[in-house]
Amino acid sequence: MVVGRPLEEHELVERARAGDADAYAALVRDHEEIAFRTAYLITGNAADAEEAAQDGFVKAHGALGRFRTGEPLRPWLLTIVANEARNRRRSAGRRAALALRAAGEERPSGEAAPSPEAALLAGERRAALLAALGRMREDDRAVIGCRYLLELSEAETAAALAVGRGTVKSRLSRALERLRAELGDEDA
Amino acid sequence: MRDLHEELTALSVEWPPTPDVAAAVTARLAAGDVARPARRRRRRAWRPALAYGLAVLVAGFVLVMAASPDARSAVLELLGLKSVKIERREPAAPPPRPGTLGSGLGLGEPVTLEQARRRAPYLRLPAAAGLGDPDAVYFGRRSVSLVYGARAGYARATTTGAALLVQEFPARVGEFIQKSLGEGATLERLRVDGAPAYFIAGAHGFAYAHGTDVRFEDPRLAGNTLLVERADGLLIRVEGDLARNQAVAVARSIP
């Protein structure tokens, strides 16, 4: 076989549909991280998120025939995996607090390096922010998590949460209000 | 007033490490899996998961005993061990393959004691009297196994071909040892230095989960076995033709 350019997503989908296991594995690899993290936002626990991702991708394989060629694959996969995650959360029958930790550094914002004190304060603020987010109800943290932490688009968030885009907008704005209140921030 | 929107945008989160979903999915698809029903949590739906796991590998020669699902779940609840699943059914019993001590048991790669110590920092050697160093050491995907040949006080067991098999598993979430008890085996719950444990007397089936997948390794017939789930996260498994007290003594001698 001649090694050429990497295959486009739609080519991988075609091959996977035709029974090419390697092609499907490549698709899973491309999306497993975002799928796992989305599931984690919903289940609040890595073991359940892993199962949800696995089961989701297995189901998606069986449903490839119904996937509409030309559509983006990621939202379609997220819908399936997030649905698995919700089923798990429901049958677990309890509300799990989401434990998230801030990574060592903020994403670069283009500003000058902060002073050590400012860095410390910022670190505490980040921890408080994530703790508050973890305490929020699932709908709220899922919509904030999808949009800000996972940087999903509005359409992808809608797919993952199984709601319309309008609902994503309104839910997000209400969730941000509640997060502000939780943090004790005043409105400007 | 800080801008929450900007703060959230700048926030970077330490996610749990992404598991190798692609490998697990590929293996499941290759095994002919079509998405098992949700939940593997023991209360409700461990049975379909287990049935699936076993069906793949031991289809045909596992005979599920008459114990009701409720009774079996009750046994699990009672045990309260997080890493172990027990089911009452007749075990499948491929005999151990001949070869060097422990080589047919699927314990992993043979290593020297030094190599095992380097690769598995959690390893602790049992110091029970008369045991000495193991005669063979295996490093597996998630365990270290110490195999002891016959010596004073420890007779060779037919199930393993060794006198004593001690396995140590580091902490892990979820069940990963699955045992099947046939009619001939009895199960006793006990505590070893405060840690939940149980002792299975009589031959029974024994299998590890494979990776993060739900498939199980080939089950084999195991002899008397003590399982101890220590507070430090180490799961210890002691197997041999041993009385309960002797097995407990071996487990206790592990620092």
Low-confidence stretches of chain A: 106-112
* CATH arch. level architecture of the largest domain in chain A: Orthogonal Bundle
Strand content of chain A: under 5%
Question: Topology as H/E string of chain A?
Answer: HHHHEHHHH
The neighbouring-strand order within the major sheet of chain B is 4-5-6-7-14-13-10-9
The domain tally of chain B reads 1
Radius of gyration of chain B, in Å, reads 20 Å
Give the overall shape of chain B. Answer: elongated
Query: Which spans of chain B of ≥5 residues are poorly predicted at pLDDT below 50?
Result: 36-82, 210-218
Count of helix runs of chain B: 6
Query: Quaternary state, please?
Result: heterodimer
Helix content of chain A: 55-70%
Arithmetic mean pLDDT of chain A: 82
Instruction: Determine the structural class of chain B based on helices, strands and strand pairing.
Output: alpha+beta
Listing every helix as H and every strand as E from the N terminus to the C terminus, the arrangement of chain B reads HEHHEHEEHEEEEEEEEEEH
3D shape of chain A: elongated
Biggest pleated-sheet summary of chain B: 8 strands, antiparallel
Distance between the termini of chain A: 63 Å
